[in-house]
C-alpha cells in the first residue's frame, strides 16, 4: 500500500514523524481521513482523537485540542495547539481540561464561543469514556 509523510507537531515537541498509510483528523468541519494522493487542503482542527495508521492493524492515537492541518498528495503536517498521546493520558489530565473548559464557558457571554466550548467539553468526555479510565 502507498504511504505518505506525516508530521505531528505539538507546542513542546514533535510527537510523530514518519511514513503512514492513513490519518484520521478531527476537522472543525467534521472528521476526515487523509490517504496518499489526497487533494490539497488546509483545515482547522477541533478537540478530538487523531488516529494514525502506520500499517494494517498497527497505529497510534493522540488527543488533540485545536490546531490546523496542511494536506497535500504526498504529506500531511499537523500543528496542534495541544496534543497528548493516549498512553500519556490520565483521568486527572482529562478532568483538568474539562474543568478549564467549563471555566471558559462560564466566563464568556459570546454565544458562538459557548457552542464551541460545549463541543470541546463533549469531545473530552467522549475521549475519557473511550479510553476506559
From TrEMBL:
Q: Does the keyword Transport apply?
A: yes
Q: Which InterPro entries match?
A: ATP_synth_F1_dsu/esu, ATP_synth_F1_dsu/esu_N, ATPsynth_dsu/esu_N
Its main localization is membrane
**What keywords are assigned to this protein?**
ATP synthesis, Cell membrane, CF(1), Hydrogen ion transport, Ion transport, Membrane, Transport
Molecular-function GO terms, alphabetical: ATP binding; proton-transporting ATP synthase activity, rotational mechanism
Q: Where in the cell is it found?
A: Cell membrane; Endomembrane system
For whether the record's keyword set contains Cell membrane, the answer is yes
Positions of the ATP synthase F1 complex delta/epsilon subunit N-terminal domain: 4-83
Q: How does it sit in the membrane?
A: Peripheral membrane protein
* One GO CC term, this protein: plasma membrane
Function description: Produces ATP from ADP in the presence of a proton gradient across the membrane.
Family annotation (PANTHER family): ATP SYNTHASE DELTA/EPSILON CHAIN, ATP SYNTHASE EPSILON CHAIN, CHLOROPLASTIC
Which protein family is named in the record?
A: Belongs to the ATPase epsilon chain family.
Q: Assembly and interactions? A: F-type ATPases have 2 components, CF(1) - the catalytic core - and CF(0) - the membrane proton channel. CF(1) has five subunits: alpha(3), beta(3), gamma(1), delta(1), epsilon(1). CF(0) has three main subunits: a, b and c.
Under the heading HAMAP family, the entry gives: ATP_synth_epsil_bac (MF_00530)
Give the protein's recorded name.
ATP synthase epsilon chain
Gene name, per UniProt, is atpC
Amino acid at each position: 500500500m502507498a504511504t505518505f509523510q506525516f508530521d505531528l507537531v505539538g507546542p513542546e515537541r514533535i510527537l510523530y514523524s514518519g511514513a503512514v498509510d492513513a490519518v484520521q483528523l478531527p476537522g472543525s468541519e467534521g472528521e476526515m481521513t487523509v490517504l496518499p494522493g489526497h487533494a490539497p487542503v488546509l483545515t482547522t482542527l477541533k478537540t478530538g482523537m487523531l488516529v494514525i495508521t502506520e500499517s494494517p492493524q498497527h497505529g497510534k492515537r493522540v488527543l488533540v485540542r485545536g490546531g490546523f492541518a496542511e494536506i497535500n498528495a504526498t504529506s500531511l503536517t499537523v500543528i496542534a495547539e495541544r496534543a497528548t498521546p493516549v498512553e500519556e493520558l490520565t483521568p486527572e489530565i482529562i478532568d483538568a481540561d474539562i474543568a478549564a473548559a467549563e471555566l471558559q464557558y462560564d466566563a464568556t457571554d459570546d454565544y458562538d464561543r459557548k457552542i464551541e466550548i460545549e463541543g470541546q467539553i463533549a469531545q473530552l468526555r467522549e475521549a475519557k469514556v473511550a479510553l476506559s479510565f
